């Protein structure tokens, strides 16, 4: 795609999004047009279109912004296309989405900005996105959804639960990837979760879920999951994972359940003979939030290439937390815990410019940590994280 076409799309889109509350208004207008003009697609979407309203629009914006980087964009879109099979989406639905989005942007941009050339640029950009997703979905031979039966539910903190499921058939995801999940009490509300273990040939899978205050799905998982529940899982997504070039040392930074995709990678690396040096910083608000130190300690003791430094924002536990009885476990594999904001702590630890860096956690944690590391001289191209929607 030529750079003029990309520039035309970008300029019109930025003009809309830059307005006060622009992307929220655009998302609302897009859905209004989509559901009015194509009522047959309404049933794909959740009844309540509040918190997640802009995920689809954000994803399209993310793709449009990367039209000049096909090496990264096309694999991302192919994964999304394979994943969208879970909705039962067909080729004609893409036309409905593309037309509605274009109409919504056009209304906001105004007739003066919307020339024939702009119109064609949008058609071209949206066609690349839709064709890539449709093509990948059509070629895929794995199931559109897996069914997972809950076989264990373990509450490790009062708002963090580990759930293990048995899939109806094994899923070949790569370590570091995530999957879209739907639980029985929240129909049509798919949310991403990252498997905390490598893919298992017998089809067992494990997720670590934190209950987000006011969150529809996470609080239902933490509060109501029972053995025997049946979840649905979509196709694997995401590009985190151990780089092919094993000479490059790695720096991993994970907060809260952001640890899951990093832990899965470390477990897979522990099965290999040769690994690059890895320094993992694992973060939480308070010391009691570091829920998986036992596993990390065992991994670090057994694998000399791994260094693990726990980091917490506060030095003490909250008043309501009561320490478990008995002697505190010794963890000789771990470095001493450091107190501070995780991005600052990592940046202060030394020069990381040569490392392959991965950050996983809440969107705000990922953004602030990335900012700190870039300010400390790490090139943006060396820093990887999942899309933040
Ligand atoms: C690539 C990826 C992988 C993920 N992996 C995991 C995982 O392994 N384990 C896990 O527990 N979660 C994970 N998440 C987050 C998860 O997908 C949900 O977004 C989260 O559980 C909230 O969903 P909800 O339905 O409870 O909240 P919603 O009802 O969707 O949102 C309620 C409110 O919470 C806010 N909110 C949403 N997500 C977060 C968040 N992460 N932190 C703080 N506030 C938030 C929203 O802005 C909104 O205001 C992952 C997200 C991504 C993008
Ligand atoms: C045009 C390219 C498209 C892109 C880039 C895209 C991307 C995304 C992304 C990233 C999400 C959020 C995560 C997820 O649940 O998978 C999403 C959600 C969704 N998409 Fe798409 N999508 C596209 C087209 C479509 C089409 C054609 C349909 C069918 C009508 C569709 C239906 C949905 C539904 C139902 C959701 C869930 C929305 C919600 O939870 O509120 N998408 N899309």
Question: Main traits of this protein?
Answer:
17% strand, Rossmann fold, 389 residues, binds protoporphyrin IX containing FE, alpha/beta, 3 domains
What does this protein look like?
The chain is of the alpha/beta class. The protein folds into three domains: 3-139, Globin-like (Orthogonal Bundle); 146-233, Translation factors (Elongation Factor Tu (Ef-tu), domain 3); 250-384, Nucleotide-binding domain of ferredoxin-NADP reductase (FNR) module (Rossmann fold), CATH 3.40.50.80. Helix content is 38%, strand content 17%. It has helices spanning 3-17, 22-37, 55-64, 70-83, 91-109, 116-139, 216-224, 259-269, 293-302, 342-348, 363-375, and strands at 146-157, 160-167, 179-182, 191-193, 204-210, 230-233, 250-255, 278-284, 306-312, 338-339, 356-360, 383-384. A six-stranded antiparallel beta sheet has the order 4-3-6-1-2-5. Strands 10-9-8-7-11-12 form a six-stranded parallel beta sheet, with helices on both faces. α1 crosses α6 (116-139), α2 packs across α5 and α4 (70-83) packs across α6. The longest helix has 24 residues, at 116-139. The structure holds flavin-adenine dinucleotide and protoporphyrin IX containing FE.
């Amino acid at each position: 795609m030529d750079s003029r076409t990309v520039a035309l799309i970008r300029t019109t889109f930025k003009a809309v999004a830059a307005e006060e509350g622009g992307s929220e208004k655009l998302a609302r207008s897009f859905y209004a047009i989509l559901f009015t003009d194509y009522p047959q697609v309404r049933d794909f979407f959740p009844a309540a279109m509040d918190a997640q309203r802009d995920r689809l629009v954000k994803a399209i914006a993310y793709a449009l912004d990367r039209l000049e980087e096909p090496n990264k964009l096309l694999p991302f879109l192919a994964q999304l296309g394979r994943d969208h099979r879970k909705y039962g989406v067909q080729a004609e639905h893409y036309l409905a989405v593309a037309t509605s989005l274009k109409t919504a942007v056009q209304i906001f941009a105004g007739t003066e900005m919307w020339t024939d050339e702009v119109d064609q640029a949008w058609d071209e950009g949206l066609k690349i996105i839709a064709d890539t997703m449709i093509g990948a979905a059509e070629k895929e031979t794995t199931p559109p959804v897996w069914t997972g039966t809950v076989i264990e539910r373990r509450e490790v903190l009062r708002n963090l639960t580990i759930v293990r499921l048995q899939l109806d058939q094994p899923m070949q995801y790569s370590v570091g990837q995530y999957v879209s999940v739907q639980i029985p009490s929240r129909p049509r509300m798919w949310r991403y979760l990252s498997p905390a273990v490598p893919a298992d040939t017998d089809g067992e899978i494990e997720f670590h879920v934190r209950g987000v205050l006011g969150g529809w799905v996470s609080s239902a998982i933490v509060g109501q999951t029972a053995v025997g529940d049946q979840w649905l899982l979509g196709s694997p997504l995401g590009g985190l994972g151990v780089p092919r070039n094993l000479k490059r040392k790695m720096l991993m930074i994970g907060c809260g359940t952001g640890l899951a995709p990093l832990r899965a990678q470390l477990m897979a690396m522990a099965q290999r003979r040769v690994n690059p040096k890895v320094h993992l910083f694992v973060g939480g608000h308070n010391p009691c939030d570091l829920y998986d130190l036992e596993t990390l300690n065992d991994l670090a003791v057994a694998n000399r290439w791994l260094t693990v430094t726990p980091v917490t924002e506060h030095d003490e536990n909250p008043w309501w937390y009561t320490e478990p009885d008995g002697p505190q476990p010794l963890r000789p594999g771990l470095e001493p815990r450091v107190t501070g904001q995780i991005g600052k702590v990592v940046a202060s630890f030394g020069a990381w410019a040569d490392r392959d860096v991965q950050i996983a956690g809440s969107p705000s944690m990922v953004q602030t940590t990335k900012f700190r590391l870039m300010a400390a001289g790490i090139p943006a191209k060396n820093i990887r994280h999942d899309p933040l929607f």
